Amino acid sequence: MDNLPPKHAAVDGAAKTRPDLNGPRQPRVPSPGPEIDLRPRMGLDKTQQVYMQGDKLPQTSSVLISNSKYLNNPFYREAYVTQALRRHGHDLPPTYMVPLMVRAFEETTDFRRMAQLLAEEKVKNPAFGAWLDERRHSAYRRDDMAKYAPGTLGHEIWAFLGTGFDMEFAGKAKAEMSDLEYLIFRRGSLHDIEHMVTGFGPNAAGENALSMTNVAADANYFTPELAQMFSQANVWITSTGYNRAALHYHHVLPTYLNAMQQGIAAGLALSQPLFLNQWEDYLDWSFEDIAAHLGFTRGPGAAWDWTTDATNG
């Protein structure tokens, strides 16, 4: 014991210290005080501004004007910007801006031009024309769906109707409808079935994926101008949702991006948009058989349910 070095003896010219039982200490990172300006220089100098904007100034007016009918429309601006920048809250439903969105579409859509494009499309695409002329519609009743086996589309509709949701929330069928009226009605009435068939939702990421499926399928099937008119609502949903997740819900963004990728892949794999399928003929089919028949890969279903609560608040 007498040969032990003193407690504070120097070893190789350095003071020996007691070992840290909690592991090596990390260097302390000082926190900047509130008086320190941490903002990086983001502004552009005059030369950089001219490089980006050119040397011409836009026209001036006593009111907001542009060459975009969407930017000029106050309802479109309000609906789109609010939905893209807002945080979802528990005080209002996520769909709160949809009525304003619909009004914006009504004011910016040239329905006469859309009807003309529909008439032209019926001639170019006889299969689409036959689908329109058939005017197929089914009002699903829960008692009628009870006979279908679990795992089939019919059984899933039976379970869905038991939750109190209305598959015809967008409106009821009318005896007489124009091609355009029928098209809008039929697409709206099939929305919930598209969630079931694709395995995309209904949840936050699933809505995003299904929207991308429909955008991709429309773009792949119809003439570009008509596809744009068909896709307005779906583009609005997925683009605002993507921006909102990127701004506020960073932990959900990877799943959103994956949902977009899966949705695009499914839409491009389809030979025709989902709404052209007569789902009344598939009620006794399993979802796996439907997906294999139509040629797309289904989404993860309830595995994305967590994204709804994760993008709220």
Structure description:
This protein is mainly α. The protein has a domain at 109-310. Helix content is 52%, strand content 1%. It contains 15 helices and two strands. It has helices at residues 46-53, 69-72, 74-85, 98-108, 111-124, 126-134, 142-145, 153-161, 179-189, 191-198, 204-221, 224-248, 253-269, 287-294, 306-310, and strands at residues 10-11, 14-15. The longest helix has 25 residues, at 224-248. It starts with 9 loop residues before the first strand and ends with a helix. Mean pLDDT is 87; it is low at 5-16.
By DSSP, the count of extended strands is: 2
In percent, how much strand structure appears in the residues? under 5%
Largest sheet: 2 strands, antiparallel
Helix content: 40-55%
The strand order across the widest sheet is 1-2
Q: Which residues form runs of ≥5 with pLDDT under 50?
A: 5-16
Query: How far from one another are the termini?
Result: 66 Å
Helical stretch tally = 15
| Rg calc | 29 Å
What overall form do the CA principal axes indicate? Answer: globular
* Backbone structural class: mainly alpha
- The whole-number mean of residue pLDDT values reads 87
Order of helices and strands: EEHHHHHHHHHHHHHHH
Set down the secondary structure blueprint:
Blueprint: E1 10-11, E2 14-15, H1 46-53, H2 69-72, H3 74-85, H4 98-108, H5 111-124, H6 126-134, H7 142-145, H8 153-161, H9 179-189, H10 191-198, H11 204-221, H12 224-248, H13 253-269, H14 287-294, H15 306-310
Antiparallel strand pairs: 1-2
Helix pairs in contact: 3-4, 3-12, 5-6, 11-12, 11-13, 12-13
